[in-house]
TrEMBL record:
One Pfam entry name: MarR
Organism: Rhodobacter flavimaris
UniProt protein name: MarR family transcriptional regulator
Keywords assigned: DNA-binding, Transcription, Transcription regulation
Lineage: superkingdom: Bacteria
Residues covered by the HTH marR-type domain: 8-139
């Protein structure tokens, strides 16, 4: 057997390709034109309205430079809006529009079907074990990523100075 077929990195790359393909197929079949990263951005903005671009990038573990293009495309489609931050006029805060919130609500069944496609041949116990192990690997190696996952530490539209 070819050695690369048992290398974790090779398998992770293949699984990523499969995941993106399944996501695209399920969401397109439901009438959506959204990438997994765009979906992640919308989801995170629903949970964290008013965050800035850099915070969003950290929350979805996406490159801070590349996230700008994602945000521009979502804004052009009317799914998010950027506004000047009241406490820091240089910063822009991000929020879902009504249209963005509607897309997010209605795309969820297709996203759930994607997970079922990916996990089709695994039992419930195997699914839980695989997710647990993937989280463990991702958490243990987060600092090795070019775009590490970062927790929100404060939002530009919130005064965290205590005054």
């Amino acid at each position: 057997m070819t050695v690369i077929y048992d290398l974790p990195g090779h398998l992770i790359r293949r699984l990523h390709q499969i995941s993106v393909s399944a996501f695209t197929a399920e969401t397109a079949a439901a009438g959506f034109d959204l990438t997994p990263v765009q979906f992640a951005a919308l989801s995170m903005l629903e949970e964290n309205p008013g965050i800035d671009q850099a915070t969003l990038a950290g929350l979805i573990a996406y490159d801070r430079v590349t996230i700008g293009g994602v945000i521009s495309r979502l804004e052009a489609r009317g799914l998010i809006e950027r506004t000047v931050c009241e406490s820091d006029r240089r910063a822009r805060t991000l929020r879902l529009t009504e249209r963005g919130a509607s897309v997010l609500r209605t795309i969820w069944p297709a996203v759930r079907r994607t997970q079922e496609v990916i996990f089709a041949d695994l039992s419930d116990d195997e699914r839980a074990t695989l997710l647990s192990l993937m989280r463990k690997i991702a958490d243990a190696n987060n600092d090795l990523s070019r775009a590490p996952l970062r927790a929100a530490t404060g939002r530009p539209d919130q005064d965290t100075s205590g005054s």
